[in-house]
Amino acid sequence: MPGRKQKWESMNIEHYLGALLVLLVISALGLYSGMRVKSAGDFAVGGRSAGTGIVAGTVIGTFVGGSSTIGTAQLAFTYGFSAWWFTLGGGIACLVLGLVYARKFYDTGLSTMPQMLSREYGQKTATAAAILNSLGTFLSIVAQVLSGIALIASVSGMPSFMAAGIAVALTLAYVVFGGLWSTGLVGVAKAGLLLIGVGLCGGMALHQGGGWSAFAAALPAERYFSLVARGAAVDLGAGLSLVVGVLTTQTYIQAIVSGKSFSRARAGALVSAFLIPLIGLAGVAVGLYMKIHMPQINPSTALPVFILEMLPPFLAGVTLSTLLVTVVGTAAGLALGLSSMLCNDICRFHVQKNLSEKSMLRLARFTLAGILLAAALVTAGNAGSLILGWSVLSMGLRGAVTFGILTAALFFPGRISPPLAMWAMGTGLACVVLGKPLIGDMMDPLFIGVAVSLLVLLAGGARPGRFR
């Protein structure tokens, strides 16, 4: 371990050159994106002119963060194939998004989820949903910033406050100038670099380790080669969380409605459904390899240590820098969606109703910067363990509060009254918040929250007649 620790903390010039190359490419794309932004509509939805690559890049660029890469390898180190659920669930979610929900989202002609809810249930319901979703999204942003801090500090040895400054500065550069165009274009580059870098790591882990059969011979099959090693309720709950979470997260909806046409928007979702699980599978291979060959390491360092130990220095620098962009890119994509909701669905209705396009663009950028700076302040307060513990709750907030009423608004318009929608949101939220302390680890409280919310809607919507 002493030798490995020295190598971990002493990156050479080739490492830094590889990392610098990635950062220069990402920065150039961000600046180019900013030149294409002329209005708030361009900033939020790319002027509805995004092709398949931009849509897929936005989805992948937002979804594939620290959990999909570093977190997947970490969990695979401990539980094996059940770690695949995060990216497998994300792939299933994108499949459902493309085949079922994309047409409904696209045909609304609206850019935010609260706008869709407002048209069906009124502004009061939409504002309540926007506030609750904003809280959940903000917690996820903080978790991503914390992941960036951990990655930067562990590789470079920097103090956490310096790592926090770099993580937030990179996130601002990533998206604040280019908005949707930035998350899309950078997402395309990031997806390519991830598939090459993490895919290469997965391939090397399989080759050096003797393949899946060698892994199976060295590790207990019931723990490391089961998709439900942590228990069916936990692992299947993770899959459900991803499906519900993706369908109710503003950034993914924004990616769909930004498409130049419905067919391109749907194709972007389907491309994402195919690529996201592959990135996770590579992470699983690395986690299993490290469990067999370096069982003494901290599981959270499985992927970074593999990169530094196994890849040539320049390529290791490229891959580590890509992981950093992956983390901050996810934070940026979530922050873009949150900024759009705050500006379009709260400020425009409750603060200033008659803003010009230029004023809305300035407000969107200012709000986005404020969100990221607020996240930095939270991390500076050493709230990491608390926020990371609540990151799962953030998914539950978005899913249990919004999934039922959004689905009803899209597929069964006119059947649910505004008061009933508010009741469904309130009961879903209560079940998620109270479920964990009451049932512990027996079941994901998201199951209960979504089920109760849907039951409330079914009970009220089953009555004959329409509320309009």
Question: Would you give an account of this structure?
Answer:
- By secondary structure, this protein is mostly helical.
- The chain has a single domain (2-382), classed as Sodium/glucose cotransporter, CATH 1.20.1730.
- Helices cover 82% and strands 0% of the residues.
- The relative contact order is 0.19.
SSE layout and pairing:
Layout: H1 2-9, H2 13-36, H3 40-45, H4 52-63, H5 67-79, H6 85-108, H7 113-121, H8 123-156, H9 160-175, H10 179-209, H11 211-218, H12 221-224, H13 232-247, H14 250-257, H15 262-293, H16 302-310, H17 313-350, H18 357-380, H19 384-411, H20 418-439, H21 445-461
Key terms:
468 residues, globular, 21 helices, single chain, disordered N terminus, Sodium/glucose cotransporter, mainly alpha, 0% strand
Extract low-pLDDT stretches: 1-8, 39-46, 178-182, 382-389
Number of helices: 21
Measured distance between first and last alpha carbons: 69 Å
What is the radius of gyration computed over CA atoms, rounded to a whole number of angstroms? 22 Å
Order of helices and strands: HHHHHHHHHHHHHHHHHHHHH
Number of beta strands: 0
Proportion of beta-strand residues: under 5%
CATH architecture annotation name: Up-down Bundle
At the fourth level of CATH, the homologous superfamily is Sodium/glucose cotransporter
Largest sheet, described in full? none
- Class by SSE composition: mainly alpha
What is the level 1 CATH name? Mainly Alpha
The total number of structural domains is 1
Instruction: Round the mean pLDDT to the nearest integer and report it.
Output: 79
Q: Please state the overall shape, judged from the principal axes of the Cα atoms.
A: globular
- Any idea of the CATH topology? Sodium/glucose cotransporter
Helical content (DSSP H or I, runs of 4+) = over 70%
